Amino acid sequence: MRTEQVALDAMYTRLEQMRREALQRREDARFSSDGTPAGRFNRDALQHRYSQELAALNAAEDKLCFGRLDRDPAALAAFGPGAGGSAGSGSASAPESAPSPADEADAQRVIDEHSAEATIHIGRMGLTDGTAARRQILIDWRAPASAPFYTATALEPQGVIRRRHLQTRRRQVTGVADEYLQGDPDAQPAGGGHDDLGAAGNSALLEALNAPRTGRMQDIIATIQSEQDKIIRADRSGVLVVQGGPGTGKTVVALHRAAYLLYTHRERLGGHGVLVLGPNRTFLEYIGQVLPSLGESSVVLATIGSLYPGVEATDPDTPRAAELKGRAMMAGVVENAVLALQAMPRRTKLIEYDRGTLRLEPSLLAKAQRRAWGSRLPHNRARAVFVKAVLDGLAQQVAGRPGVKQAPEAEQQPPDLDGIRTDLAQDPDVMGALAALWPALTPQRVIGELFSDPRRLAFAAPTLSAAQRDALLRPAGSPWTVPDVPLLDEAAELLGELGAADRAAAQRRARRREDLQFAQESLDALDSAAAGQEDSGIGFTVGMLSAEDLAELHEDNPFDLSTADRAAADREWTYGHVIVDEAQELSAMAWRMVMRRVPAKSMTLVGDIAQTSDPAGATAWGKALRGFVGDRWRLAELTVNYRTPGEIMDVAARVLAKIVPELSPPESVRRTGSRPWAQRVDAAELGAAAGRAAAAELAEHDEGQLAVLVPDELGADVLAAVQAAVPGAGTDAGPHHRVSVLTVRQAKGLEFDAVVLVEPATMVQQSKRGWGDLYVALTRATQRLGIVHHRALPLQLDDLLDRR
Ligand SMILES: Nc1ncnc2c1ncn2[C@@H]1O[C@H](COP(=O)(O)OP(=O)(O)OP(=O)(O)O)[C@@H](O)[C@H]1O
């Protein structure tokens, strides 16, 4: 252990040194501007880069090093320095504080050289010793040389003699646990004692799994399992579908895969970024710390509801409307809705013009319309083609009109059509009439009117029944729902960008809003700095500045320079890789939107067909993906449940058999000895019983989180009763409450130490995916499950411990 402490001390010393250097670089950058706009831009870019670098170094503090491999030098030659059964493609380096391209090759050389050494330490990031020789003292967990730490076995040792797990608290080594994969332990190379802590990897894993939940997902770099490692390091290209039951680590694996891909393909992906899509905001907050803790920031976390810039939809819609809006045929409905706004009048329209009355005849308009369609441009760009064609026709009208006075010398010459057209184009009445015929459209207007105007909907969706259309109608100005967002995106695709002038105005407005918000935040920060707190880093007097002043300063001084910021704000941004979590929930229309973001189709889709709850979600992967990638996707499966103890999974497995009989339940990695229980109470007592169970849980356990999971219709009553028993119980999950009352939709993807499930029979009946909801609810607990019910329990739950 002493040897390991010496090694760890050297790593932290080096980390400190790198932090000081990065801090200094950031300080130097602060004063680097020569005062010109370009100088200020460069200063901000540098400061931004060094801040990110610092954030990555700070994130490396916890569990900087967690493993060591002693390798057989003879076997190394055979396996190569980057020996690791499942190492993915691409060249990996061990970037130390974001090296510039010039020294990246150097870093590569160093790691390769070092990887040929017999003993390597594995940790959160790569570190050299800081000398000119650049001796590698720590290897990034993502480097090829680290792969055997996760995948070597006694059967396939991959050149590893000994694998050592290091336990650390803060900067102290608190234990080492060794596994010998080949040879005689007594004959192993020296360097650290052999503390017998049992099956080394397993004890670290079980410790992580049994730890109380905090409301935030943690990284798993020290305990990645072999089947998970294969997925994390799988080739970047193409579509990889990861199917796995609840708790098999799909989410955590997907996040580690994002970190791995960014590390391995930094040059390619750094600039394009990686998009991670999750089911809702709470979920994104739950997983939000994992990638920063892995030192990665070029990742955009989004939901389907937030993927269209400028709209943040969170409302779900009614199940009927959600199912209809998710259907692939909606693409045609949106197209029809745009076409309806290009419809031409059947009667001639007259416009008063200073050289006489102009006639907008149906034949002229139809010709202009055909020309605009023939251009194959999206609506807003085809508008210029339409307008030009009509103005041409009108100019002819004006030129050919008897009585239009011409100068005597001009009478011999052909009429000046260009001049007439220019005149017409400046006439507000003429241009107003044309703008009404082929208006500049926003997606918000098209979709808003589609669902609030029965005539428009009837025109655009002739194949839907009257009852179906009724289900879609809503008052004008209603807030956007999540299923609206793919339709907005679809409309944006058909409409194209607004014209330059419209776009510039919209951008100015949006920018101004953001700047004002930024300015207000900066002023708040400065206020607190003035009150004696830490310097916020903005070096000018603020006493006299308003948010508006500061916003103006910011206008030509952009701070939003990161790939992630730019990508999130740009609807047409294309990502280097897209990861979709809970991918089974995506509707056909949502898939269309996501696929547009990744034309190269480099994607990882993780999910569980058995957990589908969205009415428009998938029931089979092949069916969901066929329209986009045919059968060019590959499947990987995760089979071990790390979350749900065996006692709970036994119950959940019977529910799974009801949903998808052919799917095998994941095997739980542990049993806890705690049997799930059920308590039958009067209907009026459901909330109070759940409240008592929650209060008892808090009394018995000092740490950890509990969720009361309710059918949608019982939510408000149960919440009131639980809050009476446990003041402070919340309606959202997260680190702020120890007890939350949630619907299944809200609990999707999350986990809790204990779950109290209310009235399963109602949950099953609440939608056509009710059994899936019950399955999700049953599999959220890491330790304890209880059920309170009044109605008879579904048969699948009949052997629970009866608690009266
Ligand atoms: N190798 C591992 N080491 C430590 N913890 C792990 C490991 N794999 C998974 N876990 C933990 O198991 C729990 C479940 O993981 P995760 O949420 O990723 O599963 P999931 O398959 O996405 O589940 P669900 O589909 O039910 O939402 C998490 O707490 C995760 O950190």
TrEMBL record:
Domain named UvrD-like helicase ATP-binding: which ranges?
223-645
Q: Which GO terms describe its biological process?
A: recombinational repair
Query: Which SUPFAM superfamilies does the UniProt entry name for this protein?
Result: P-loop containing nucleoside triphosphate hydrolases (SSF52540)
**InterPro entries linked to this entry:** DNA_helicase_UvrD/REP, P-loop_NTPase, UvrD-like_ATP-bd, UvrD-like_helicase_C
One GO cellular component this record assigns the protein to is: cytosol
This protein's UniProt keywords: ATP-binding, Helicase, Hydrolase, Nucleotide-binding
Q: Where is the composition biased (Low complexity)?
A: 89-102
Does the UniProt entry include the keyword ATP-binding? yes
Q: Where is this region: Disordered?
A: 83-106, 400-419
| Superkingdom classification of source | Bacteria
Positions that bind ATP: 244-251
A molecular function GO annotation: hydrolase activity
Please state what the protein is called. AAA family ATPase
Its source organism is Nakamurella aerolata
